[in-house]
Design a protein that fits this description.
Chain A: It comes from Cyprinus carpio. The complex is a heterodimer of chains A (522) and B (571). Chain A is an alpha/beta fold and 522 residues long. Chain A has 14 helices and 15 strands. In chain A, strands 1-2-4-3-15 form a 5-stranded mixed sheet, sandwiched between helices. In chain A, strands 7-5-10-13-12 form a 5-stranded mixed sheet, covered by helices on one side. Chain A has a 3-stranded mixed sheet with strand order 8-9-11, with no helix packed on it. Chain A is elongated. In chain A, 35% of the residues are buried. The longest helix of chain B has 25 residues. Classes of the chains: A alpha/beta (522), B alpha+beta (571). Chains A and B meet through helix 1, helix 7, helix 8, strand 7 and strand 12 of A and helix 1, helix 3 and helix 8 of B.
Amino acid sequence: MAALQLEKQRGRYAALAIAAVVIVVGIPLWWKTTETYRAWLPFSEISELDSLQVHALRPSSRQNHVCDSIGSAMIYNRVFDKADLSLHMLSESSCGSVVVYVIPESSTLLPEDVKVYVGQRRTALLRSPPFKTSWNLKEVLSNLDVEVEQVVSTMSFGHQDIVAALSNRVRMTKVTKESMADSMRAIKSSPGYEITFSLLNPDPKSHSLHWDIEGAVQSYIQPLLNKLAPIANFSVDSQILYYAVLGVNPRFDNSVSAYTLSADSLSHVINPVEARLGSNAASSNPVLNFLLYVPDAHHSPLFIRDHSKRKVPSNAFHSPRWGGIMVYNVNEMYGPEAERPVDININMAKVMGVFLAQLRLMLGVQHTHPPTGFVLQSPGSAGLADWELDRLLWSRSVENIATASTTITSLAQLLDQIGNIVINDNIAQQVSSAVTSLQSAVAELEAGNLAFALQYSREAILASERAFFDPSLLHLLYFPDDQKFAIYIPLFLPMCVPIVLSLLKIVSEAKKRRADKQAKSD
Amino acid sequence: HTHLNYKLGLTLQNRTSEALTPAAAARDEFQEELVIRPLHSGDIYASFQFRTLWDTDFLQEGQKVSHYRLFPKSLGQVLSKFSVRELHISFTQGFWRTMQWGQPFIPSPPGAELWVWFHDTVSDVDGNWKELTNVLSGIFCASLNFIDLTNTVQPSASFKPLGLGNATDHRFLRYATLPREIVCTENLTPWKKLLPCGSKAGLAVLLKSEKLFHSSFHSQAVHIRPVCQDEQCTSKAWELRQTLNVVFDLYTAGQGKKEWSLFKMFSRTLTEACPLATSSKVYVDITDNPELSPATPLLSQAVVLGDRRTYSVFDLTRAETFGQLRSLNLLLRWKGDGEMLRPLLHAERYVAGFGLQTGEIHTVIYNNHPYRAFPVLLMDSVPWYLQLYIHTLTVTSKSRDNKPSYIHYQPAKDRHRPHLLEMLIQLPPHSMTEVTVQFERALLKWTEYTPDPNHGFYVGSSVVSALVPSMVAMNTNFTQDQPLFSSFVPVKEESSYFVRVYTEPLLVNLPTPDFSMPYNVICLTCTVVAVGYGSFYNLLTRTFQVDEPSLPLAKRLANLIRRIRGVPLLT
């Protein structure tokens, strides 16, 4: 009997030992060998990005004293833009800062009614309000505060620009319709853009069109692009498309004896044309299209009308984030008996004026609405003042930072939620480099180094997108769980059933023995 | 939903409109041409050629070509981005029957074919090639992205550049075919989009897919190469040639009458030339005296592929071509007499053997010239999963061994590179030369099979290139007004002309596994493991006790008897 007990005990121990081996060795081994590789990600730093706060530093405003010599120099020069230049030479203002010069109330440098003059570079002249001679310097300066604040808010990055830059990511409640439109218009920040000019000639039988696009790009577009070089790489090309027609039939208006396109129909114009434009095969940068449409002989002249049924003076319109279209009527350039096809040279100055304005909008050069009494110097040949460029750098950096941080946080969230995704080392590396670049971008932005901030933010975007769109993330994503179970069940079921049964038996026996013992002791 | 806004143009200051120079005299020109040739089989062959010639250089250092007029921008960008020197791409549906139809103007194999010469400044040719095929598959809506290293070869002799320059280093050449590619409307539309007039005017109005794809043979191609600008060849120009060849089988459809018209073929008639074209012509082959209406006084003679043909020419740039009706509908009626010139070179190919283990590829090349022998270059590119036994390669002509004078063989690497076999074979006059090589079919991994593995695997056409001795003197003069169909391959000497013949692609069956096998294997293995484990577990945990062995049956019977007898029992 004792031998039998011993034997039963041995069986029990064996069952327990096997269960222990399965639990201690088998399960971890299986877990380890079937685990997906997941490299370490800086989750805590990423979650900090989620509530990122940029302590934006407004351009430092310095107030220079009215210095007699400067004053006389300016009076001597008499002309604002020369004064602007000489002031620029006098104190080289760094990127991202604005220098405000205060001139005496009595100065004849600015015309009577002009209070503030904003130059082409990063300088502004401010006519000081009247003050008593008894005031000391501090009092004089505090007296100026309101005006200086006004100048700075005109010339630098303000609330409006932040709204515009972040409109993609953040839903804001207090947004005016106009600023919303402004922000929707600008094309998304990208490391490069392709600008394509297309001449649409739907009627090559009547019109033989010539445009000197090469020269026009050189003289009108290139200066602006050179100025914008720190923001992105631009490449410009052009093509001529024949038999390309607009998507809508213009209506003949007897009152003006011309064909008209109403504002409502403009949205249908682009799609059929777009099929002909051709995608850019050689790069994946966003494309900005500028189309010059010369209506065919039977449908000219063609005019665009706005919502209030008035003729649009430029005869052009633009589609946000896509490009612009200009209608160029040529019917007045030849008589009815002219020999077909008529050779026509297109006036590129007129065309490029419109396209340049549209390009500025697309690139996000915001419209400034200066308060009364402000005079803005025209941006000159480059089409962009220095302070406008600074503003653009600002908003691009902020937009890039916002984009990169959303990409990174959503990637982290995704990886956190779906355990099946393999995270390779290169992805982890991209993510951490994106995070470091983001942090440096924010730091540089706070320090006011716009150029570095933009560069870091661009690196952050590149790294985050590379991580986000890495194809290795998808390898095991769609390996369904039920298939896994289908494969494991033939092995696991026969293995686990005896172990579980014998464990149950051991437990029930132990219970019974305890009950017996209790009965005995009672 | 598009948001629209209007903005006034900037008034540009300090900028007077510059003196408008008339755009630099058109440095690009466009020509279009259609050749119609009745075939002796009763079919009709229509061949379109569109040529854009642009006096520019895509490969110029430092200067980007970015302003396009007639040349399509998408192709121009591809040329400069990938430093392409020469690009030939063709999409073909159907097989050109050389023996019934004669030689085509520009031959092409069934499926898609792409061969590219890169500029010799390219350092990473394979990388460029990979990217280029992806971009082209986007431009032409074709599955060229399936071209990879496993079906790309670098032929050493068969594909020489057709344009300017004498590149000989075949490291910069890539050649690939996709014999399985199916060509349809979605390939035609992007091809038409590359034409300056699109399909709105000129000859291209005839290109309607519902007719073009209802035919025995359809082939569309794009050839880009640098060419001489003029006779003296002082400057280089880039030529884009778009060709479309189609063979209509109207004979069987038209109750056995040999009667054709433009309208019957294309369901359109011609009304105008493309206004951008400097020349726009229709050639009709009237060598065998078919009845043609409207008649035209313009005749042209051309020597094409060793044959002197007479053509009626219709010049679409002249108004009188269209007559009173302002539309040109050519009518051709033909009795069908006259002998067809037997093609001098012709090739066929088939797979022999039985079973799923080994097989034999036979390539048969015919020289139909009555008294001249000439050499041909045979190029074969065989996928790695047919493992060629190159020692079994035999070349026999007139039942005698015919030793190739040049053999270039590059063995395949499994999953990396196909076999490439190039041979220079001398074909005796009026003979049949047979090239055979044995192969073994490889077993693929289960993920490498196509979705329909029992359909078989395609092996691309072999290519036979040759300079065939001509019966008539070829025209070696380079003139501008030569018809396009006779000017594609430059003729270097009067006595011979260049011909390329493609054989049929092969369809080879590979041993196909049962695809539920992996799951079955997993289940079976798991069951075996589980059964083994079960008995092991049983053995370990079972309680053993000593049992009194019961007596065997014989002893028990004996005991029964013993009990009756009263004798002590056995134990």
